[in-house]
């Protein structure tokens, strides 16, 4: 022990005699902190066990305070069909999540497109609905929404695109024209916003270990195993329930599958009930069966 450390300890003893109030408070604080950390990890472990048997988290919604949208934005919620079917409490939760998404997300218009309240709210409602069954709904690797008037040239793929998810930039890039086409259900089983947002959820589930990511990713692996059957894959192709783009790779497959789940749930459930259940579990989206 060097001379400076000895002097420091002597000074501390002079300034803070044994069992001072400061030491008592510090001791209590450290003890409580250790206990809370232990409790957190115990609950986290037991919830993982619960998820294994119940295929859903302990809870989804818990907010100390609920935020409200400005009055001029609330009308967009009231026009949404999914929002309309929710009970009073869930409507408040939906609104709160929409506010939080708007707070953390930067909207950017490209090629002269001016992003107005209508555009922001249509994207926000889509994202809020898709993640409404997930406790961890604010994705770490998504902070920017970029809107183009129509298709755009992608630096990533060096092709003309209508949508993409860029994890490096934490950005979702969309053609507004094509987003609205899907949002208005003009293409059966297709939704550009849901497709690209599923990519964002999938990427976040790989990178994170929260309970929502764990459920999504683990169930996705179960779905992959289920699809190992050559006979099942043949049936999926023959029914044409998924468009051809789904067979590009496993990431496109799940993105197209979630589109069909959200846009045509009854058809998916009737033709492939087990696949329907897997997607329901991945998103913990249990609102079609109510």
UniProtKB/TrEMBL annotation:
Transmembrane portions of the chain: 20-43
Alphabetically ordered keywords of this record: Membrane, Transmembrane, Transmembrane helix
Record bears the keyword Thylakoid: no
Source superkingdom: Bacteria
Any one GO MF annotation of this record: aminopeptidase activity
Recorded GO CC terms: cytosol
Protein name, per record: Zinc-dependent peptidase
């Amino acid at each position: 022990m060097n001379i400076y450390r000895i002097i420091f300890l002597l000074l501390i003893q002079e300034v803070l005699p044994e069992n001072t109030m400061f030491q008592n408070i510090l001791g209590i604080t450290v003890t409580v902190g250790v206990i809370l950390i232990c409790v957190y990890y115990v609950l986290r472990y037991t919830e993982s066990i619960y998820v294994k048997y119940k295929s859903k988290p302990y809870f989804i919604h818990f907010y100390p305070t609920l935020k409200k949208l400005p009055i001029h934005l609330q009308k967009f919620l009231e026009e949404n069909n999914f929002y309309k079917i929710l009970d009073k409490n869930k409507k408040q939760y939906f609104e709160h999540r929409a506010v939080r998404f708007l707070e953390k997300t930067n909207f950017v218009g490209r090629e002269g497109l001016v992003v107005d309240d209508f555009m922001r709210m249509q994207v926000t409602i889509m994202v809020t609905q898709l993640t409404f069954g997930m406790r961890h709904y604010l994705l770490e690797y998504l902070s920017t929404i970029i809107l183009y008037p129509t298709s755009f040239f992608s630096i990533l793929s060096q092709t003309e695109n209508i949508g993409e998810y860029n994890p490096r930039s934490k950005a979702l890039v969309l053609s507004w024209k094509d987003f609205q086409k899907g949002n208005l259900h003009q293409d059966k089983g297709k939704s550009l916003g849901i497709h690209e947002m599923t990519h964002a959820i999938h990427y976040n589930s790989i990178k994170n270990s929260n309970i929502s990511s764990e459920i999504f990713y683990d169930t996705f692996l179960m779905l992959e195993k289920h699809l190992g059957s050559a006979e099942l894959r043949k049936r999926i192709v023959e029914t044409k329930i998924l468009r051809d783009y789904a067979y590009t790779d496993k990431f496109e497959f799940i993105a197209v599958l979630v589109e069909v789940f959200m846009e045509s749930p009854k058809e998916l459930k009737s033709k492939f009930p087990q696949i329907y259940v897997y997607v329901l579990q991945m998103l913990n989206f249990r609102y079609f069966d109510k």
